[in-house]
Amino acid sequence: MIPELGQYALILSLCLSALLAVVPMVGATVGNTLMMNYARPLAMGMFFFLVISILCLGYSFVVDDFSVVYVATNSNTLLPWYFKISAIWGGHEGSLLLWVVILSGWTVAVAVKSKNLPLEIISRVLGVMGIIGVGFILFTLMTSSPFDRHLPQFPAEGGDLNPLLQDIGLIIHPPMLYMGYVGFSVAFAFAIAALLTGRLDSAWARWSRPWTTIAWAFLTLGIALGSWWAYYELGWGGWWFWDPVENASFMPWLIGTALVHSLAVTEKRGVFKSWTVLLAIFAFSLSLLGTFLVRSGVLTSVHAFASDPDRGYFILALLVITIGGSLILYAVKAGNVKSESSFALLSRESLLLVNNILMVVSAMMVLLGTIYPLIVDALGWGKISIGPPYFNSLFVPLMLLVAGFLGIGVASRWRETSVSFLLKQLWLPAVASVIAGLLSQYLYAGEFTWVVAGVMTLVFWVVFCNAMDIWKKISGRSSLKAGLAGMSRSYFGMILAHAGFAVAVVGVVMVTTYNEERDLRMAPGEVLSFNEYQFEFLGAKKVQGPNYSSDMGVIRVLYRGEIYGELHPEKRFYPARGNVMTEADIDPGLFRDLYVALGEPLGNGAWAVRVQHKPFVRWLWLGGLLMTAGGLLAATDPRYRKQARRDAARAAA
Amino acid sequence: MNPKRKQRLIIVLFIVFGAATAVGLSMYALNQNINLFYSPTDIVDNKAPEGTRIRAGGMVVEGSVIRDTQSLNVMFDMTDYANSVTVSFTGILPDLFREGQGIVAQGAMNSDGVFEAVEVLAKHDENYMPPEVAEALEKAGKMPDQMRAKGAE
Fold it and tell me: Are residues A133 and A195 in the same domain?
């Protein structure tokens, strides 16, 4: 009964989103206030019924209703309750339901938070969200309903959640990632609404900017969580594989980063307007492409789940409609856009344009590497794959350029910046960063590696240029307190995000260069010496978990001859699906992780053991967290609300 | 040409030049890093180059896995049910590596006709067959019926 209720609620939400897609849009076109006023209630109704729908699915999981196919495939009576909840998005059908729930959540958030926006704009924005809702709810209902039943006979026991997904990382990673993915639909909806209304101005950028920044922050967090999850859960200590599914989330992030910067220029200076719109369209289109790549089964990936091609065609059709429709609209309308100001060749505008170009080029190169094998396959030229060296050889230099320009961009001024001004501002950070870069690398490694020293120089360059900017702002004021009080929240957000970028780069370069890894056979009592650490294998013992049995290795770690602690990597067996799972044990630290995983038993109590020493690996995710915090801080700047009220008053007048 | 147009021209040229360089470098990097996929039948027919990094995939033959007792070396046969090829790998195999399971391996052929793998991939999902392997099996006309049934689900 409850699953039928969920299905029914899903159908109702489809009807409401269809109304939302039509009524306010028509109202905005013919100028009918009554019709436009329907936008907010319809958005809330759609959200309400989708929440009921996902609650029904959650209920079916909690009470172990195995007559529901999706529950029977992804749950088990022995599964702890929190994994039963997170199993809602453990498979294709449920994660799609989560997708639309989050979409409607964003829609309602826009509806509630936009009291100051002109009715015409808001009804169009919500209308576009409604259109997207129709597409995806229809997709869920037609190809992948999570409420289908196993009738008349259903299994007494469920097939269990994939053990890889029985983890805290999976509880939070997909919702965060989807918050980001789907959040770009808001930026997209604002862009389309602006094109339809013909009102592409700074006010529009101001309205859409906090939404875009929040979506970007969530996407950053989602990607960082995904990388962290892969690191400790897949059992081989990798943190980024250039896997198509990872790329699928990374491309919208790159375009989203460009969009966040481009929106800043549009808001402050009233230029780059049509470019910003184009980026908003691309960011959302790449989110859709990501959904297509992950859900259609066209890819060979470490993430691939069994899936069926009909779903792929459906999303492909959605993708074509979205990209095609919005680009046609763009082609028709964007030609009328006029810039509100001009800028010199050397100015903050130009430097942000360079950032945009570098980000877009990076995204295109990731896109090329991701879909090239698909194109080759579709043309029947054979099966190929593109290895990580392709991505690394292009992505690394591009990001180093980004770091270099970032410092100059922060120091530069809007409108026009002279070379002599820049030199005066930047010679000190430049010298300091070269010294700090060389010194830190030498002190850490005891020898010179030019590549690392160069990258560290750029890292310090980013940090020092931002610090210089802060200092400049404070020194102009009477006191430190007055200086800090004079800075806006979005300024702090920017500084934090830039620091996060620098921190993440440190993580990447250090762990890539100084990572040490040994796979070997260890019999009980054998000792492996590794840097200043020694690992003594004491054997493996049997341990029983709630829904698995496990061989737990015991490894004693010695640091410079002193006992440091014990690590307990596990090899788990989940009988429900007959799965074997490696559970690595990690001793985390700010400056290094010790990572130990068990391979297979090799007889006589000996095991294959993987031991890794990973310097600075935590900095990768720390950087992601800083960027997220920066984004959230910037998006909640009270200035947006105040300005929005003023803009609305002006629009009404 | 007025200064504004000149400035625009410089920007446009900069973008065009940048984009061209980027595309050129991308295509170069792409060509350097393409790994072609070969089925066991292709390899037995000597279609696969020796010493070049390639991908190969198939099903692990039941009973063929031989582990060295003193090191992490593993030898096993990989088949598309028409032909099979011996794979040698040193290291820790993924959790889902099992006899009778579809896998994809990266590596190169050595002069003895053994595929020396540097990486072995098996999938999260036990019902999942890598598309390359499925196609290789279809081509060899040896797709097991129960697998096809699963694929159609």
Answer: no
Report how far apart, in Å, the C-alpha atoms of A263 and of each of A210, A280, A284, A582, B136 are: 10, 9, 15, 45, 49
Alpha-carbon distance of A637 to A494, in angstroms, equals 12
The Cα-based distances of A137 to A3, A283, A315, A356 in angstroms read: 16, 21, 12, 34
C-alpha radius of gyration, chain A, whole number: 27
CA A30 to chain centre: 39
To the nearest 10 degrees (0 to 180), the angle between helices B3-32 and A388-411 is 150
Which pLDDT belongs to residue A417? 86
Distance (Å) from the alpha carbon of A581 to chain B's nearest alpha carbon: 6
Beta-bridged to residue A558, according to DSSP, are A534, A563
* A28 lies in the same domain as A126: yes
CA distance B111 to chain A (A): 23
- The domain of A142 spans 1-162
Closest chain A residue to the Cα of B152, Cα to Cα = A308
A383·B37 Cβ contact <8 A:
yes
A140 vs A343, which has greater pLDDT? A140
Q: What is the pLDDT of residues A7-16, one digit of tens each?
A: 999 999 999 9
Are A186 and A244 in a shared domain? yes
For A200, the 3-state DSSP assignment is coil
Q: How far apart, in whole angstroms, are the C-alpha atoms of residue A122 and residue A114?
A: 7
Beta bridge partners of A612: A517, A595
Rounded CA-CA distance A351/A472 in Å is 20
Kindly state whether residue A432 falls inside one of the protein's structural domains.
no
Among A305, A365, A393, the residue with its CB nearest the CB of B125 is A305
Our count of domains for chain A comes to 3
User: For the stretch A103-137, what's the b/e string if a residue is b when 16 or more beta carbons lie within 10 angstroms of its beta carbon?
Assistant: bbbbbbbbbeebebbbbbbbbbbbbbbbbbbbbbb
The pTM (predicted TM-score) of the whole model is 0.91
**Nearest Cα to Cα of residue A233 among A171, A297, A165, A287:** A165
Q: Give dist(CA A288, CA A317) in Å, integer.
A: 11
Give contacts of B130 with chain A, Cβ < 8 Å. 300
Q: How far is the C-alpha of A204 from the C-alpha of A191, rounded, in Å? A: 8
Decide if A385 and B4 are in contact by the 8 Å CB cutoff. no
CB contact under 8 A, B7 and A345: yes
Which among B33, B37, B55 has CB closest to A390? B33
A503 and A553 in one domain?
A: no
Contact of B41 with B136, CB cutoff 8 Å: yes
Strands (E), A296-412: 384-386
Q: What is the pLDDT of residues B44-80, one digit of tens each?
A: 888 888 888 888 888 888 889 988 878 888 999 998 8
Asked if the Cβ–Cβ distance from B130 to A608 is below 8 Å, we say no
Among residues A162, A196, A220, which one ends one of the domains?
A: A162
Angle between helix A119-143 and helix A39-62 axes, rounded to 10 deg: 30
- Report the candidate in A612, A586, A600 with the shortest Cα–Cα distance to residue A521: A600
Task: Write out residues 338-367 of A within 8 Å (CB-CB) of B.
Answer: 342, 344-345, 350, 353, 357, 361, 364-365
Q: For A460-504, write each residue's pLDDT tens digit.
A: 999 999 999 998 888 877 777 777 777 888 899 999 999 999 999
Q: How far is A637 from chain B (nearest CA, A)?
A: 33
Show the tokens assigned to A494.
């920017």
Q: Which position has the token pair 């820790």?
A: B92
Bond from prior residue into A152 cis (ω within 30 degrees of 0): yes
Query: Taking 50 as the threshold, does the pLDDT of residue A608 lie above it?
Result: yes
d(CA A92, CA A6): 17
